[in-house]
Amino acid sequence: MAEEQDKYVKILFRFFSKILNESAVETLWATTINAENGLYKLDNIPFYAPVSCEDVVFAEFDETEQKLVYKQTIEHSGNSTIQVIVLDKNIQINDLREVFNELGCESEKFNKDYFVIQIPAALKYEPIRQKLIELEENKIINYAEPDLSDNHWY
Q1: Which stretch of 4-18, 76-90, 138-152 has the lowest confidence by average pLDDT?
Q2: Pairing between strand 114-119 and 106-111?
Q3: Span 135-141, average pLDDT
Q4: How many CB atoms lie within 10 A of CB 48?
Q5: What's the rounded Cα separation, in Å, for the pair 28 and 14?
Q6: pLDDT of 16-51, one tens digit each?
Q7: Which secondary-structure segment (H or E) carries 99?
Q8: Which of 15, 37, 45, 116 is most enclosed, with most CB atoms within 10 A?
């Protein structure tokens, strides 16, 4: 049983992305909670899918796709995901990521202009939001809050 829980799987997400303004597909890593019941815990920060790291999801194997496909979120982790587009080409993306790292947030870089931030459930969102607003007002970034948990609402 312990081996099953430690097993990593990929789950396919199909959804409409408001950022891309089109249908999108993304795969996310997850650990198996209970394969028989289709329960998995997400283990990376999504770039586009409207979920957050550590959410528990229900997924089923799809014969056409030949992989696990997301069906619904069973339990929200309390974490939030923020999407950031870098507008100012003079700013290094890793410098921006470090700003949020110092505020207690992990991030994942997609390319030189786009990254996502994970806001942990226990962290207060207000100081992070203030930094996002400041950077946006200075035309350094644009950001979106596609999966803001209840404890991070303002």
Answers
A1: 4-18
A2: antiparallel
A3: 98
A4: 20
A5: 11
A6: 877 677 888 999 999 999 999 999 999 999 999 999
A7: helix 93-102
A8: 116
As a residue count, the chain comes to 154
pLDDT over threshold 60, residue 4: no
Nearest to 45 by CA among 141, 136, 114, 109: 109
Sorted by where each starts, the structural domains of the chain and their CATH numbers stand as: 2-75 (no CATH), 80-152 (3.30.70)
Rounded to two decimals, the pTM is 0.88
Q: Report the first-to-last Cα separation within the chain, whole angstroms.
A: 41
- Report the distance separating Cα 120 and Cα 129, nearest Å: 13
* CA 47 to each of CA 28, 51, 68, 111, 154: distance values in angstroms, whole numbers, following the listed order: 9, 10, 18, 11, 23
